[in-house]
Amino acid sequence: MTIRVLIADDQQMVRNGMRRILESQPDITVVGEAADGVAGVELARSLRPDVALVDIRMPRMDGIEVTRLLAGSAATRKTKVVVVTTFDLDEYVYPALRYGASGFLLKRSGPTLLIEAVRAAVAGDSMISPSITVRLLKHVTQPTPALPKPMERLTAREVEIAGRVAEGKTNADIAAELFISAGTVKTHIASIQRKLGARNRVGVAVYAWECGYASQPPVE
Fold first, then answer.
1. Contact by Cβ (8 Å): 126, 36
2. pTM
3. What sign does the CA torsion over 11, 55, 185, 26 have?
4. What pLDDT, in 10s, does the model give residues 85-105?
5. Could you please report the per-residue DSSP string of 139-199?
């Protein structure tokens, strides 16, 4: 199956770069580009892409509102939205995730995470930049109620991987440390999310941090 992607960003150079990265993959094609939020929503509704990559700051309509219209509860036909931005401010991260974004990446995250985020969105998973995972995790500072028990016990390998997610490491980082493939890491994380009932990496990170699975504190 070919994954159809729409790019909404007001910078032509950024759109060109994303297109080159995505279309280097045999299973991804870019079906449209928009230079502002209104055009992004209109194109998404007419082209019906599998995933829309959306910038935060755009003319006419910002990426938060685009996310709400395409992925929020009021959307008549929901589109998977991955926010790709320079800004990791809390006032952007939280609303985007609340409105149903399937991912939140910083533009400096690199091509590998961009490709992973598109594929994760289609698979029904979420990809969030590790630095943003760390940022969100730092808000978990107050004592919490007893953590719900996983639906299934995590394996020893899954505990290792969950701990590294809590440390803000990418799939590639984890794969290199554990001498396994990035694909294997992705499979393990999907299993962890299922067992914990976690929607994304942040949920995994919070659980792992509270359980003491992380061997070191997260760093920026």
1. no
2. 0.69
3. negative
4. 887 676 777 788 778 888 888
5. T--S--PPPPPPSSPPPHHHHHHHHHHHTT--HHHHHHHHTS-HHHHHHHHHHHHHHHT-S
